[in-house]
Design goal:
Protein Binding, DinI Protein, Chain A, mainly alpha, 6% strand, three-stranded parallel sheet, 3 strands, 162 residues, 6 helices
Length: 162
């Protein structure tokens, strides 16, 4: 008798929990953002790319000057040190940019009442694309360069809509 009661209670709990789980997903709003587009079309992204390129040129010039009188072992050390210096610099700049983008994404997600924002490449279908909103808030570049592969994506979108 008690086994039967336990089974009935357990069954009722399972049925009610399924109902709760089914209702949970109906309120989720998902956003998507294209980081590559933001990096290429935002003024800050373009400025940072120029800074990174300038730093790379500066380091290369220093390496070339140091390599003149260096033996083979010293040349390897000079190159390794320069590579590490550049990697550290570029990582720091990219990390700061990513933090700025994430801050802006969080603000827009709150404004649009989005529960989660995913990277656009991870979403096959659906979601609210907030890339343009992020660009508007961060500041579009005066001379925006088109995102790599954007033409392919537009062609795929047109085919999907047909």
């Amino acid at each position: 008798m008690t086994k039967t009661i336990k089974r009935v209670v357990l069954g009722a709990l399972m049925v009610s929990s399924l109902g709760l789980l089914a209702g949970c997903g109906s309120q989720n709003n998902v956003g998507v953002v294209d980081y590559a587009t933001i990096a290429q079309q935002s003024q800050k992204g373009q400025d940072l790319n120029k800074q990174i390129a300038a730093e790379q040129q500066k380091i290369e010039q220093q390496v070339n000057e140091q390599m003149v009188n260096a033996d083979e072992q010293q040349q390897q050390q000079i190159q390794a040190k320069a590579q590490q210096e550049f990697t550290t610099y570029a990582s720091s700049v990219n990390k700061q940019f990513q933090q700025d983008v994430e801050k802006t994404v969080k603000e827009i997600a709150a404004e649009k009442k989005l529960n989660v924002v995913l990277v656009k490449g991870a979403v096959v279908e659906g979601g609210t694309d907030i890339t343009e909103d992020v660009l508007d808030k961060m500041g579009k570049a005066k001379t925006a360069t088109p995102a790599q592969g954007q033409g392919q994506n537009q062609g795929q979108e047109q085919q999907a809509s047909n």
